[in-house]
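Researcher: Please translate sequence to structure tokens.
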Amino acid sequence: MSTTFEIKVPDIGNVHDVDVVAVEVQTGDVIELDQTLITLETDKASMDVPASVAGTVQQVHLKVGDKVNEGSLIVTVLVSKEEAATPAPVAEPTPAPAPVEEVKAVEVAAPAPKPEIPPAPLSKGGEAKGKAHASPAVRLFARELGVDISQISQGNGRKGRILKDDVKAYVKKALTEGITVTGGAALPKIAVPDFTAFGEIEVQPLSKINKLTGQHMTSVWLNLPMVTYHDEADITDMEAFRVALNGEKNNTVKYTGLLFIMKALAAAMQQFPRFNSSLSSDGASLIFKKYLNIGIAVDTPNGLVVPVVRDVPNKSIKQLALEIGEKSEKARAGKLTAADMQGGCMSISSLGGIGGKAFTPIVNAPEVAILGVTKSSIQPVWNGHEFAPRLMLPLDLTYDHRVIDGAEGARFMEALKYYLSDVRRLLV
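Model: Translation complete:
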């Protein structure tokens, strides 16, 4: 005896209208348990949806390009009576390896088109009212952004002089309100030549993830007044403690410097709650979070992904080590789910295993700050009597200047350095 069984889209991490990028079965196929039926692509990852039963495909209800949600019908399968009576539990969708780099991104809805900005008011003579007063440097800056500076009727400088901030505000308004900047596009497009004139080329389309990442990073760069604060932390004692832990007999956990940085960062965020907040969409209030999760960038053969470690303050160094090891392994195997990369309060972008002395990480809005880490090195440090060799760790803190001012950013960095210089303080 046989019966039919419907396989539907399982829980995909509170995301909606997910694109179907591949359908791996067709009517008449005999499928096995856990065989991939379709591949979905969200703004965070590509995911394979496996079969929850084995049998013969009677009908495929989806095609490439469709958008689905949790519960959408994928296929109808003819199964034996025994298999239908005890169907396998619905498996979580498994991320498929992506051909191009993946980064954490938040989908930014495209603004609806609106009318062009009206030109500057005209005087009785039919000419624009007043001439735009700006320095040559500001005029050059406006031209580089494709802005007709005459459309900015009033500046915030002395006697109404137009400043660079006025140009930025004009572009921001154009992007956020979906209006067209008269005199050119909101941003000038870069001319791309015909590269085939110079030799052989290969064109690889960007995935949805790459496109959304580019949109998000561009939006962040134009909308957030970001400041990056560079400093160094003395981690000589922390490194000695880390090495001692790894050298203990019967130790089965690998302790890395990142674990201590996470704990120190969490302690500093608790001390300075603005770093664990987000600005409301209207920019009129701050949303303070009572939880504290940290995103960690993981380098994989398929690109960069950022799994989120939850409840960092209440986990031990050993618990963090085991969790990061597990999530890093899932990331490299392409098995992270969308839920694994959601809910971050602040992110860490570490290049310590590669090199470098400093860089400027971009805030992953709606988070308000991101910590960059590069490779530590032994440096001579004056202790009041002599130069002594100390292990110094470069830190790069980028923050949203609308939420965090320079003084608070500097105090936060000092607190972070304080905890890293002696990790015993994290126990107090």
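Researcher: Any highlights?
Model: The helical segments are 81-85, 136-144, 164-177, 208-223, 236-247, 257-271, 317-332, 406-421.
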